[in-house]
Design brief:
Blueprint: H1 8-11, H2 25-40, E1 45-49, H3 56-67, E2 72-77, H4 83-94, H5 102-115, E3 120-125, H6 132-144, E4 148-154, H7 159-165, E5 169-172, H8 179-192, H9 197-200, H10 205-215, H11 219-235
Parallel strand pairs: 1-4, 1-5, 2-3, 3-4
Helix pairs in contact: 2-3, 4-5, 4-6, 6-7, 8-10, 10-11
Length: 261
């Protein structure tokens, strides 16, 4: 759906689309630490931790976007799979023929990246769902190859996971948004979704303070409560049902170009 046809019903949909990223000091600091670990320190494995809803999944997507300038990235969610199956999925995403040996194929691809002065960066979200043996094998592969690096995120602090991956570097994202950051986030979402004036008026200073207080500054909760606030306004009749009256078109429609249904 294009921005011109967005309504309040999907403005605050949960997403990790990096185009929806709204920078704030805590996330930029975490990103800088992750980039330093991958690029400058060449750490085989790095663990990103923090409470649920703080934006770790979004941060991984933004990191992948930034690293693509000089590196090859591949992202996958953690799952209870054996190492061979997990590595096969990575090869599929990379469009690499595993030839019956997915681990060797990954190492070959990593070596090719290293020869170019780059790296193959494997990004794993919800890494706590990985089988420990699989995490251990992934960490061992990264230790084996200078060109293979792993960045994993987990909402559940686990020394066992860090040991399995061989993660010597850990980055924590646990700082909630303050009120100005909450206001900036909501305003950014409304602007990106071409929210109509009627919808924008719903988010006055009082509404934003209430959303921030109830969410305790947790980004995912801010997003959920903002969406519920807009939907409640529809149910109570403060704004009309979603339709063309809520779309803010760049210019008035030409009646001659409207095709009857």
């Amino acid at each position: 759906m294009t921005a011109a046809f967005s309504t309040h019903l999907n403005l605050f949909v949960a997403t990790s689309d990096p185009r929806r990223y709204v920078a704030r000091p805590a996330t930029e600091l975490a990103l800088a630490r992750l980039e330093r670990a991958v690029v400058r320190e060449r750490a085989p494995a790095t663990l990103l931790g923090g409470p649920p809803g703080m934006g770790k999944s979004m941060l991984l997507r933004v990191l992948a976007t930034r690293l693509r300038v000089g590196h090859r990235t591949v992202a996958l969610c953690g799952a209870d799979l054996d190492a061979a199956t997990f590595c096969t999925l990575l090869c599929d995403l990379l469009r690499v023929d595993a030839n019956g040996d997915p681990e060797r194929a990954l190492l070959f691809r990593a070596a090719a990246a290293e020869a170019r002065g780059a790296a193959l960066v494997v990004i794993v979200d919800d890494a706590h769902r990985l089988a420990r043996a699989t995490a251990g094998r992934l960490g061992a592969l990264a230790e084996t190859s200078e060109g293979l690096r792993v960045v994993a995120a987990s909402s559940e602090p686990s020394e066992a996971l860090a040991r399995a991956l061989g993660a010597r570097t850990s980055v924590v994202l646990d700082a909630p948004m303050d009120l100005p950051e909450t206001c900036a986030y909501v305003d950014s979402v409304l602007a990106a979704g071409w929210a109509s004036p009627a919808v924008r008026e719903l988010f006055d200073a009082g509404a934003l303070r209430r959303i921030h207080r109830l969410a305790a500054g947790v980004p995912a909760e801010v997003n959920r409560l903002a969406g519920e606030h807009a939907d409640a306004a529809v149910r109570e009749g403060f704004v009309p049902e979603p339709g063309r009256s809520l779309w803010r078109a760049p210019k008035p429609a030409d009646p001659r170009r409207i095709v009857p249904l």
